[in-house]
Amino acid sequence: MKTINLAIVEDDILIRESLESYLGDNRSINIQFIATSVEDFLNAIKVAREPQVDVMLLDIGLPGMSGLEGISHIKKLLPKTNIIMLTTYEEDEKIFKALCAGAVSYISKRTPLTKIEEAITTIFFGGSYMSPSIARKVINYFGPNKEEKGMNSLTSRQLQIVECVVDGLSYKMIANKLLISIDTVRDHIKKIYRLLNINSKAELIKKSYEQKV
Fold first, then answer.
1. Alpha carbon distance 167, 154 (integer Å)
2. How far apart are CA 162 and CA 164, in angstroms?
3. Element containing residue 106 per DSSP (H, E)
4. Quick check: 192 and 158 in contact, CB under 8 A?
């Protein structure tokens, strides 16, 4: 039986001790590192001889450097480590930032310990695991919208940008007019396209005329 070398970075003492106690009883899991912050973990890794971490449970809301910020630093030292975000946060933005930064899974802290144990084993052997509620968010985000939403689903700022696009303004001109950056304009446009289930400026202009924005 292969041994899974595990690291836990969690500042909540009750959660940390629960994970350590429960997972420590599994003979196939070897808890190598336990830390309360990303900084403490990185320091421990730097002084350890040939540190081996196959899977890591990493909290987002940590003192000092957040877990989200810490992913890139951890991956530099341990590029082969599979990082599981274990967190109370289920906001779309944090989920996707964590996954894009290099995390392989995102699990709610409300997940039973048996399921967390299952996730560690599944990921170690090359599989994938996410809490059902989070998996649904990922599917909804990346999957096609089944129903097109109308302009009334847009925010006031997004409606302003639509109006500018209809008037023929470039991204730079929109940014100057609304006193925002070009990157912010691009981000809004992407969200507008996704919300309206469209893929081009022409479709946006057509829809805006159809719905008389």
1. 18
2. 5
3. strand 105-108
4. yes
Confidence bin at 213 (pLDDT 50/70/90): very low
Distance between terminal CA atoms of the chain? Answer: 63
The sign of the CA dihedral 78, 9, 114, 133 is negative
Query: Which structure tokens are listed for 26?
Result: 């599994």
H helical segments located in 106-181:
113-124, 132-142, 156-166, 171-178
- Reading the block at residue 50, the tokens are 């040939």
CB distance 64 to 35 below 8 Å: no
Residue whose structure tokens are 């005329």: 209
Name residue 63's amino acid: P
pLDDT tens, residue by residue, 153-194: 788 899 999 999 888 888 899 999 999 999 999 999 988 988
What's the distance, CA 132 to chain centroid?
15
3-state helix/strand/coil string of 70-92: HHHHHHHHCCCCEEEEEECCCCH
Give the torsion through C-alpha atoms of 166, 172, 178, 181, to 10 deg.
130
Q: Extract the tokens encoding 110.
A: 């409300």
Whether the model clears a pTM of 0.90, i.e. scores above it, the answer is no
